[in-house]
Amino acid sequence: MPGATSDVAPGMDFNQQIVDTFRARGGEVNEPVAFGKNLVLVHVPKKDGTIRVAPVAAIHDESGRYIVASAGGSPKNPAWVYGLRRAEQVDVEVPGEPVETVRAKVEELTGDERDTMWERFKEFSSGFAAYEKTAEGRVFPIFRLVR
């Protein structure tokens, strides 16, 4: 995945800048990171009942949208993974004019299916392969979001 550029507005949360850009531009985000239209906003329920909006790179095919909890190659899962594991369904904002919010069933991939999709993510962006070097052996959770 291309690295972040240095043009994040001072004092502005990095993820919030991506969310705002996604919503303002029909789901296309090219700064501060070049995602194009390969991004979704996942509304993840938190334990306290609030919702976290997580911008996540996505691969879309006829089976649904796939997202990976890479956390930039961190050895720890991002916090939103645990919310997705508790949720049966979530709202997902997808690119379009205007951006559309859809309800999606959450399925975590396992075994060969997960491994095959991980290979697709590495083909999608070489940044994902680089994350394997810094993740200290962590297996990145992958979820299918089915409308």
Write a short abstract of this structure:
The protein is α+β, with helices and mostly antiparallel strands. It has helices at 14-24, 80-86, 111-124, 126-134, and strands at 39-45, 51-61, 64-68, 89-94, 100-108, 142-146.
Structural class: alpha+beta
The separation of the N and C termini measures 26 Å
Q: Segments where pLDDT lies below 50 for 5+ residues?
A: 1-9
Profile the largest sheet.
Answer: 6 strands, antiparallel, barrel
3D shape:
globular
The whole-number mean of residue pLDDT values reads 91
Fraction of residues in H or I helices: 25-40%
**Widest β-sheet, arrangement of strands:** 1-2-3-6-5-4
Whole-number radius of gyration? 15 Å
Q: What is the H-and-E element order?
A: HEEEHEEHHE
